[in-house]
Every structure is written in C-alpha cells, then in structure tokens.
Amino acid sequence: MRKFRFRAPVLAGALLLSTALQAPPAHATTTAPTKATRMAAVQTANTINYYPSNAGWTAMWTSFDPVRIDADLTRAATLGATNVRIIVFPTTFGYPVPAAAYTAKLEQFIDIAETRGLNVKLTLFDWWNGYTDVANSISWAQTLLTPYADDPRVIAVELKNEFPPSDTAAVNWVRQVIPAVRTTAPEMPLTLSVDGVSGATGMGTLKSALTTTPLDYYDFHFYGNSERALAEIRRAQTAVTPDLVVIGETGVSSYNVSEGEQGAYLGRVLRAATEATVGSVAPWILNDFATGAIPPNSQVSTQPAQYKYGLYRTDATAKFSASVVGTKWTTGTTPNSILNLSFEAAANESPWRNYLPQAGAAVITTESPRTGTKSAKFSGTTRVGSNLPSLLTSPITPVQPGYLWRAEAYARGVAATGITEISLSWFDINGTWLSQNTSNRLPTGNTSWTKLVVETAAPANAAGVQLHLKSGDNTGTVYYDDVAVS
Question: How many CB atoms lie within 10 A of CB 14?
Fold first, then answer.
C-alpha cells in the first residue's frame, strides 16, 4: 500500500481559525484511496464551484481569508454539498516553482473543507497558456500534487480549465502532462473540460486527440438553453462514449433573468442529468460577486452578468436557486412546484415571463384567485401578426421524442373577447421552432373558472418545450390560475 501523510485540520492560530473549526468528520480515514474509490466519489459528488464573494479567481489566493472560507463552506455543506471545486493559478502560486506560502494556503483550504465534510476537486493551469513550456509545466504540477497523491480528501484533478482542443500546441502539451502526472499520482482521476461554446463537439475533438493518453472522465460545462438540457447532455455523452461525463459547471446569471428563472434553469439541468444518469452536477457558483471582487485584469470583470451566478447573494442570503439545489442534494428530488404554477411566489422568484408584451403583458394580481391569493391577469390585449401575447415558462421535465405530455390551467373571463388558450410549443436541439399543440378555448364573455387542457406526444425530433398561457385580441379581462404540466 502506498503511504501518504494524512493532515489533521490544525490551522495556524495567526489565521484565527483554531477555535472555529470542529473535529475531523467521521469519514476521515487513513486508508489510501484507489482510482476506483475516487471515481466512485466523482460520479456522485454534490459539487459546488467556489470563490469567496469578495475575492474571485486569483484574488481568492492573494487575499486568502480562512474565516470567510470556513463560513462559506459551512453554508455549502448545510445545503448538501459533499465536494468543492477550486482552481489554482500558476502565475499566482509561483511558476515554475510553487511558493511555499501558496502551497500552505492550498493545504489550509483542504483542511477547512475537510472539517465541513467536503472533499475537493483541484483544477490546475487556469489563466495560463504556456503550452511550449512542457518541462516546467510538468515540474510545477508534480510539485503541487505530490502531497495529495494518496490523500483521500482530493478526489480528482482537472489539468486545465476549459481546455482548447483545437490548439495544436495545447494538445501536444497535455499529451505529455497527462502521463507525467500519472507517474506522480497514479491513483488520481484526471479530467479536462472545454468551454461552454465548444460543448459536445469540443469534447469529441478532445477525446480523439487523446487516444494514446486518455482521460479518466470528461467534465461538461453546460451553459446552453436549459429547455434542451437532456438532448445536450446526451450529445456530450455520445461524443466521449463510453467514458464517464459529469457536469462540472452550469447555471445562468440572475443579472439576465429573474432569480426564479435562475432556479428553474438549474432545476431543468438537474432533472435532465438524472434522466441521463449523470450523477454529479456542479452549479456555478456558490456566491454572487461584489463590485471589485473579480480581478480587473480579467475580461470577466467587465461583464455584469458574471457577478450574479451565485446561489447566494453577496450578503450571504439565499437566492431561490439555493433551495432548488439544496432540495435536490438532500432529498434527490426536483419538484414541479419550483415553477410557481399557482403564481403565489414573489415576483423575483417566479420563472414566468411575458411573450410579446407589446401586445399585452400579464400581471400578477390578488383580484381574482381561484386558489391561494394570486392569479395572472390579461387585459386589453392585441396580437403581433399571427402570434398572441402569452405568459410562458418551460417545464423542468426533460423533453424526449414520442413521450406523452399534458398541460392544464384554469382560466376565467370578464367580458373577454378574442382567443384565450394554452399551448405547448416544441423546439429541436438547435432551438428551431417545430410546432405547437393548443388546448380548448375559453368562451368569450363572462365565464366561471374553466379548465383548459392540451394533451399530445412530443414530436419525433423535439428537444425542448415551452408552455404558453395565451390571451389575444381581448378587449376584456382574463385570469389564469392553478397550472399543471407533466
């Protein structure tokens, strides 16, 4: 059995954590891990991507704050996380020789994670493209990883974040780095990711390039349309079959959508991953970022959306997405209720959005609920060409061709005119509209609550669906409540 040094979580008193940290968790072991045991952990890890809200990317290490890190990882563990992914930077840590001060920070981070019941995935060589410097790259990686070769708290290493598979120099570099790292840490699973734009195609290109130096699994970064998540995940799996795929990053910024849609996005990805038997999905990221938290030398720092991907706001209060992820991690379920199907949620926690609002936007009102206290209201609507204004959302159940679908909603009219109906609109994997199926229509005039129902099978090449609550050419008023979709 290979020997390793198991480090107890004893932190420097100067960093003010010795009294804050608890005893090591019961899962701590002195048995050296095997690749098989680590791969088993990789497949089922509840992984959270992490930087502190006030210190993103390299700033996490240059402004290392163990007290804040401990508080954040405590929150992540309470949410149900079992693993944390962290990224290290050669230019920050010291290259080609890692500086002792920074390797100590890395060790301290892993100690903190352990006290909170979290193991760690390490990502190397971010913000770096020195692909011609193979010898120093290998030396740097081996020096950094040697202490963790047989440490059960580190379950996998990603050699390069969002690797460019079409870069010949990069491919030549990684073909040499992989076997060198394996000599240092033969029981450590190795992986790479590609960027979200390259997607499945990039993963397939990468796999083909590494035939002689294969990876242990592939890390899929998914930032595509969540309505089509299952099709995209399966496309990624096909690209690298039979190798294991995990989703190492996914999410949407609440700068661009409501916090409710951010949560629904993650709900759709989590449901799709379950259907595709992907056991590990890692949200990007635990925290939103404060102004100035992202180093200014990064293009990311100039993009407002990058500051709002977190499950928690900068003041550590939970966004709606935290409850979605936490429910999945602790119960294994993602309920349809996250879609706010009865309109009772606060406005920012609802995934519903208006389609063609220039022809009439729905508002949430307490005037006429069927159940609860709220319903959706259309008044004085028109149309745009053949299209009617609607309130829409996308189910979290993934679309599969030929599967039967049913959607229903209750509608009530007050001097209503025009067309009031619900519909399911189908899209292919590229987002091209295919067709729609519509329900029975609400009679015009004054009506009591009436159920509108659409039942149909998903088209043969469908990959996504939207549910629309429509009311067009309506000079009166229509209320919607108590939606269901399955």
Answer: 7
Q: What is the CA radius of gyration of the chain?
A: 25
Dump strand ranges (E) for 350-449: 353-355, 363-365, 375-379, 390-393, 404-414, 419-427, 433-438
Sheet holding 244-250, edge to edge: 217-222, 244-250, 281-283
> What are the distances in angstroms from CA 407 to CA 141, 276, 469?
53, 24, 10
Strand order of the β-sheet with 83-87 is 47-49, 83-87, 119-123, 154-158, 190-191
Q: For residue 174, what is the DSSP state?
A: H
DSSP string, 96-109: SS--HHHHHHHHHH
Strand pairing report for 450-457 and 404-414: antiparallel
> What's the one-letter identity of residue 474?
N
Peptide bond into 242 cis (omega under 30): yes
Write down the H helix ranges in 80-211.
90-93, 100-115, 134-145, 168-184, 199-209
User: Distance (Å, rounded) from C-alpha 229 to C-alpha 397?
Assistant: 10
- Summarize pLDDT for 291-349 with one digit per residue, the tens: 999 999 998 999 999 999 999 999 999 999 999 999 999 999 999 999 999 999 999 99
Q: For residue 85, what are its two tokens?
A: 């992914």
pTM surpassing 0.85? Answer: yes
Within 210-319, where are the H helices? 229-240, 259-275
Run of H or E including 71 = helix 66-79
List C-alpha distances in Å: 98 to 87, 110, 323.
Answer: 14, 17, 39
